[in-house]
Amino acid sequence: MKKELEDEKFKEYYNNYKDGMEISCASAIALTGCIDETLPTHQATDEQLSSSSKATEALLWAMPAFANNYKTVDGGDYDYGYASLMHIRDVMTEEMVVLESNYDHYSAWEHNQYIGPNYLSTQFIWTYFWKFVQTTNNMIGAIDPENANETQLGYLGAAYGYRAFIYLDMARMYEFLENDGTSSTNASGNNVLNLTVPIVTEGVTEESARNNPRVKRQEMYEFILADLNKAEEYIPNFHRSTKTLPDLAVVYGLKARLYMWMEDYANAQIYARKAIDESGATPTTQEQWLNATSGFNDISVSSWMFGSTMQKEDDVVKSGIINWTSWMSNETTYGYAAAGPMPLVDVNFYNKIADTDFRKLSWKAPAGSALSGKNTYVDEAAGAALPEYASLKFRPGSGNTSDFNVGSACSYPMMRVEEMYFIEAEAVAQQNPAQGVTLLNDFMNNYRDPQYKCTKSNKDDIVKEIVFQKRVEFWGEGQSFFGIKRLNMPQTRGYAGTMHHTISRFNTTTRPAYMNFCIVRSEGNNNTALVGFENPDPSDVYSSWAE
Q: Is residue 96 helix, strand or coil?
């Protein structure tokens, strides 16, 4: 057992974790609703903000800062910001396996247990999103576009882009879609099919917020599109100094995501290409991807369009173990992954990847396989001790495995240009399958595997292949969830040789029920329109596969 398990600080953090995240909203913890999280809370008057460049700039930087907000609800050690939501989405797919461990704070989402409306795990997601919305609303509400200067208009465009980014994630996570585990008619007898979340803008009043229903997909689409149209109008005035803020290419990329959600493939194709062209970004090279020092921790890499950066001064870094690197980098000696719950790739998923595709080296090859001994490690001896199929994709900052002040002070991607290539390929395939195959082959041959060739001719098979390659590309980046849910793809975790834990070996026939997120129960106390319109609790609706 690694010596890190004996570290007193680590044990202190872990002792704060409640087994299985079984902390009910009925407990003594003070829980707040989205009303509290989204009513504007400027620290200065609008007049002061509009006249002070420093005040408006502070609101601007509050948005990327919130991506790494620490202890939003002071819950488990999954409470470290947007990166945790990415990981939550990934452990709910079939392609990510987490090595079973008593230190695993994500077990509820992995095992489909305790993710209903009564748990702190559910509260964290809901509260984090709405606090993020509030952060964007503060920026939007502080600027009058009729009287703003060019710089302020640019800030406004960035805020609209950020708000659209957040709402699009929320809409896709909370929208109820048909599945094989729960009915769209909930316990109250109401049909919640295609319901997303309430819309809260910078002008919301407390009275309206207290009776604010979930909106259907179409209304949410129109709201997000309006935000993106405003972002597209204003953001050319903004000359960003860092990729932690959106630019015009990111706005185009968000439109491409939005249109894919709506299955408007013609527009998805258009905006994916616009994002590629506007960004000037080029796909990650093999050397960049596999670099043991800077692999997937460096925001300056040419393919990254949008991302988040953690500084050594940030609370998530200073925490030592409650951050992205702690959970995602198996090569550290100080983090949670080092203590047991390592992210691994699913065996069946791994075996479908061609040996000639360099992305397969993102995971430790099993002994005796064609790629055995070909992985690169920060430290060869430590690498030799890792289990087979362990992820090597996310390296600690500067390749430092022992000092969290350095290793965790790094970046993670929220949009890469490769996503736009895959959106374009699928959107085209949905309209013209043969042309979609051509785009897929071109991308794979030029950037991933010179020997790759898709020979499928059936439209559904072509789309599945494009999405599979996209899932390989974005393993661990929180994106695969959305394609699986949108396309109603079944998940297979139970089979001979699986590494998924016994109680999470679910085999579904459709999208999993647990991909329809629940709204925390206490929210109905603040917003009466939500009462009776909750998503059904998916916890424990599946039986585990038995060999």
A: strand
Using alpha carbons, select from 231, 188, 202, 171 the residue that is nearest to residue 517.
Answer: 171
Write the single-letter amino acid at 289: W
Question: Taking the mean position of all CA atoms in its chain, how far away is CA 529?
Answer: 28
Distance CA 214, CA 198 (A): 4
Show the DSSP H helices in 386-416 as ranges: 404-407
CA 364 – CA 384 distance, rounded (Å)? 9
For residues 69-95, give the mean pLDDT. Answer: 96
3-class secondary structure, 119: strand
Residue 297 corresponds to which amino acid?
N
Q: What is the pLDDT of residues 415-443, one digit of tens each?
A: 999 999 999 999 999 999 999 999 999 99
pLDDT at 75: 77
Number of CB atoms found within 10 A of residue 213's CB? 14
User: Nearest-CA neighbor of 34 among 167, 158, 162?
Assistant: 167
The pLDDT score that the predictor gives to residue 44 is: 39
Q: Could you tell me which residues come within 8 angstroms of residue 332 by beta carbon, excluding any fewer than 6 positions away? A: 325, 326, 338, 396, 401, 402, 404, 407
Backbone angles phi, psi at 300, to 5 degrees: -80, -10
- Cα torsion 440, 442, 444, 446 to 10°: value is -160
The residue behind tokens 């393993």 is 475
Measure the CA–CA gap between 352 and 203, rounded to whole angstroms: 50
**CA separation for the pair 373, 290 (Å, rounded):** 14
19 — alpha (psi -120 to 50), left (phi > 0) or beta? Answer: beta
- Rounded to a whole number of angstroms, the CA Rg of the chain reads 22
Query: What whole-number distance in Å separates Cα of residue 316 and Cα of residue 214?
Result: 32
Query: What number of other Cβ atoms are within 10 A of residue 75's Cβ?
Result: 22
User: Of 490, 510, 506, which is closest to residue 544 (Cα–Cα)?
Assistant: 506
What value does the mean pLDDT take over residues 85-98? 98
Q: Tokens 């089979």 label which residue?
A: 495
pLDDT of residue 30: 37
Whole-angstrom Cα distance, residue 167 to residue 423?
20
Percent of the chain with pLDDT over 90: 88
DSSP classification of residue 97: E
Which helix (DSSP H) or strand (DSSP E) does residue 308 occupy? Answer: strand 304-309
pLDDT digits (tens, 9 = 90+) for 282-317: 999 999 999 999 999 999 999 999 999 999 999 999
Q: Are 197 and 215 in contact (CB under 8 A)?
A: yes
Rounded to the nearest 10 degrees, what angle do helices 120-141 and 82-91 cross at? 140
Buried b (16+ CB within 10 A) or exposed e, 2-37: eebeeeeebeebbeebbeebebebeeeeebbbbbbb
CA distance linking residue 512 with residue 539, whole number of Å: 11
